[in-house]
Amino acid sequence: xxxxxxxxxxxxxxxxxxxxxxxxxxxxxxxxxxSKKGKIVAWDINDxxxxxxxxxxxxxxxxxxxxxxxxTASAELHAIEITSGKLEWTKDIGGSSDxxxxxxxxxxxxxxxxxxxxxxxxxTTLFQFEKNSKLIKSINFEEKPxxxxxxxxxxxxxxxxxxCGYLIVNKKCEISHKxxxxxxxxTLGVETDSGFLLGHSDGKITEVKDKTEKIMQFEESPIxxxxxxxxxxxxxxxxxxxxxxxNWEKNFEGRIDCLIDERNMIWSAISxxxxxxxxxNKDDGEIKFITNHDSRIRLMKNRDGKIAISDSGGKVxxxxxxxxxxxxxxxxxxxxxxxxxxxxxxxxxxLRK
Length: 353
Fold this sequence. Notes:
Shape: globular
Helix content: under 10%
Low-confidence stretches: 333-342
Strand order of the largest sheet: 1-30-29-28-27
Distance between the termini: 29 Å
Structural class: mainly beta
Mean pLDDT: 90
Strand content: over 45%
Oligomer: single chain
């Protein structure tokens, strides 16, 4: 039996945002987090001390870092100085903010309009700003975007109904639509070195690589998490299934909320009444370790052996892979020693009889 470990027992530090964490970003030696209530905090990953904090109208939707920190929150776009956390300017973008992406010269932002009467999103606006906050142009389209990336000076948007598929927008804000066979709404996407992967609500995956599309069908259930690079991909759905390009599949109870790849281990956060994170062998999917937590895991991000995890209660948990590995293996050794002692006791009791 695999021993379960408490997530916080493996952490280097734990911090509290006071409401659900909606964004997590590593930048240099800082971990930056944004919350549902609009709080942004930066911590030093070397010692966990707070570098700065800021409050805006929440929820915070997306964070992008280049010459400044650019973030979308509620119906606004904010520009923040990286080192001090000082708010430099704010622009009203209306609706409900979605994504923000930055290229060399401009900022691209999406904002969606939700109609209560029809209980759906009915219009999205894509804004193009200069980095001094001046609006260059804006265009409207019907679909809500669920993925946004910059590719060769173009903005790519994975969208829902009515058209589905993805939109390509050039620097002049000229828009073209790329339909995908099956006409299923996009649920999320990830960028790769040569393209991107899109997850669909009917369980399909569309891989766009060097402008060539490849469609793969998983179970007929919405894709909820994807991790991918040029050599490998792994995806999860809302029925608890995980599929790997290394030809293995694992099935759990619950919804696969997050997947990350850290040193030949797939960390998979699954929302059930136990809120477990399973550490799976990347090559064959074997369960190596299990951690549990008291709240649902919302986000997992990793970089160079550093892992950041956030939950629905507002906790941000920072882990270092080397320390985690040592503590997990020490726990396994203690568990094995305990099992050996129990077996020895049973044998001694048998001999006495």
